[in-house]
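We emphasize that the prediction below concerns an isolated chain of 194 residues; any contacts that depend on oligomerization or on bound cofactors are therefore not represented. The input was used exactly as deposited, without trimming of termini.
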Amino acid sequence: MLHSNGLLSDNGYSSQEEKHGCKSLEEERVVVWNKAAVAVDGSEASYQAVIKAAEMISDTGQLLLIDVKDPAIFIQPAPLGTTYGEPGATENLELLSQEWDQNARVIENKARSLLQSTKVAVQWRVVTVGMGHHGAAQVFLDTATQWEADVIVAGRHHGSRIVEGMFGSFPRWLLNHSSLPVLIVPPRAADVAP
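Result of the prediction step, given as a token string:
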């Protein structure tokens, strides 16, 4: 096993691992990219993607953490007997959007805290799905491409395969449509139900 510190051993462990019986983050790092765009939505899967991207980026590299705001998620079907033209509907959309913005700041702070011990430059960007876009994954990919990312990184939730099959998934869309390399980070074993 080759480590970023250049040490290699026949049994797959570095000399530091053999001596101390443990691995440090530096010994685990495999530098692959200089610029990685990471999808961050506040889920554990997205935080795992942030950590994995940081492990695989050069010390002088850059991470662009992208949170996609999709106004379509704020629109709920109107209950029977109501109309979409009610003033309350617009107010509710504004309140939901403000709440989303507050949550995005919390998500940004947590993602940045995961990267405090690294030397990589971190940028945060919130992008909004607009008219003519095909959804959050498309907006994420477009933003990463414009930023000239070497790779895009996303976490994979452990959701239902039936729901994923019917509606698709963010990671699957990226795999099928991206011209950039895609790294999908699987959920940790502890996050998967038995």
